[in-house]
Amino acid sequence: MGKIVTGLFTSLDGIVDADDDWQFPYFDEELFARVLAGWRSAATLLLGRHSYEGYERLRVEHPDSPMLAFLDATPTCVVSSTLTHARRDGVTIIGGDPERIAQLRAESEGNVLVLGSPTLVRWLLANDLLDELNVTVLPIVVGEGPRLFDDMPTQRLALRLTGSEALRSGALELQYAPTTR
Predict the structure, then answer these.
(1) CATH number for the domain including 14?
(2) Which residues, 6+ apart, have CB-to-CB distance to 137 below 8 Å?
(3) Residue/partner pairs of 98-102 with CB below 8 Å, 24 or more apart
(4) Cα–Cα distance for residue pair 14/11, rounded to 1 Å
(5) What are the pLDDT digits (tens) for 59-76?
(6) How far is CA 69 from each of CA 29, 65, 107, 109, 150, rounded to the nearest angstrom?
(7) Mean pLDDT, the chain, whole residue set
(8) CA–CA distance, 130 with 6 (Å, rounded to integer)
(9) Domain count of the chain?
(10) According to a count of CB atoms within 10 Å of the terminal CB, is the N or C end of the chain lower?
């Protein structure tokens, strides 16, 4: 049985939208090595619709991105109530059924990695399906944009810090687990 884990970047003020590329200046060798380690631990990728569409745009806008090899090699499930078909092989569209996500975790031989997908992360937390919340806080204030815990469907959620490390770039890597796990 695997774990459902996140891989999220956030600004110091909690912005998680990467569409304007504010996070890229912090991608040094140290941070990229940690990203690669997360990719290597993933047996399956779990994405929300918006993040899936963003990664599909990456194919056109940055065809030399090292992320494309990872995306192509990793079975991917997209949680969506609006998509009906995938744009490429290896991608399965699934609905937002908590039992289906729990089954995905139970059948996984490694981690089920959630990249980005803040709406999906909130939903997983609210449904007690997320095992590990990994957040890299970048030392920048972005000011506007979607925040990780906007519209959280749960009033309060207690988390336990399970790891932390400051990187040379000033970024902080934080690992949390829900106290229910």
Answers:
(1) 3.40.430.10
(2) 10, 11, 12, 171, 172, 174
(3) 98/127, 98/129, 101/4, 101/46, 101/127, 101/129, 102/129
(4) 5
(5) 888 888 888 888 889 999
(6) 18, 8, 24, 20, 32
(7) 89
(8) 8
(9) 1
(10) N
Distances (CA, A) of 156 to 96, 149, 176: 22, 11, 15
Q: How confident is the model at residue 30 (pLDDT cuts 50, 70, 90)?
A: very high
**Integer Cα distance of 126 and 105 in angstroms:** 16
Residue 26 DSSP class: G
Q: Model confidence over 109-137: pLDDT tens digits?
A: 899 999 888 899 999 998 999 999 999 99
Does the structure show a pLDDT above 90 at 172?
A: yes
Tokens of 39: 């990719």
- Specify the residue for token string 């690992």: 175
Question: What does DSSP assign to residue 87?
Answer: S
Mean pLDDT of the 165-181 span: 93
Residue type, 4: I
Instruction: Give per-residue pLDDT as tens, 36-58.
Output: 888 888 999 999 998 888 888 88
